[in-house]
Amino acid sequence: MNKNNDLIQKAILERHSVRHYTEKKLDENIVSMLQNEIKQLNAKSGLNFKLVLNEPKAFRRNIFGLAQFSNVENYIMLIGPDDRATCEKVGYYGEQLVLKAQTKGLNTCWVGGSFAHISDIMTTNKGEKLYCVIAIGYGKNNGRQHKSKPYEAVVVGSKHPEWFKDGVEAALLAPTAFNSQNFTFELKGDSVLAYAPNKKYDQIGLGIVKYHFEIGSGRKLF
Length: 222
Hints:
alpha+beta; NADH Oxidase; two-stranded antiparallel ribbon; 6 strands; 16% strand
């Protein structure tokens, strides 16, 4: 396990969804780091992620009269080709940004529909769509650990090597829509299979948990 993987492992343990942020601005070095990471991931994935800075309107909306977010002025738009296969990629590469941000002392939150669509900012190219966004900044707190399903509830079979168990335990720490954890891992020979319902947010979640599994197990198997 290299030093970078050790940092990401630590980030998996420390990352929790944060919805309330301070007014502290992102400095130039942090912005440059995020933009560089986004550029590299876009080139690798064929996606079109974009960083939006100092834009407060998207998260001013209250849901059911409640302020679900506060002081969110920075977010990453997760944009890609408008097809079902892109959902998993959005999760896989988006979570890489989330965990990288965590290593730099930032807090984040995956956000599906609880934001306003700002027409002059959230534009997409023909054939693309905005899948969701990641709120990013300095949290008023570090969030709290979500309740996880037991290991046995998300695997097929019971006799697994330690690296597989480590991967699943890391996956159980991943953010998923409504903390549903609608995924299953199966070990077949030397191959790892991962399943989730064929729905937008479950498929995005599948991409997220696959990345967590790779980091936790120390193996790239998908």
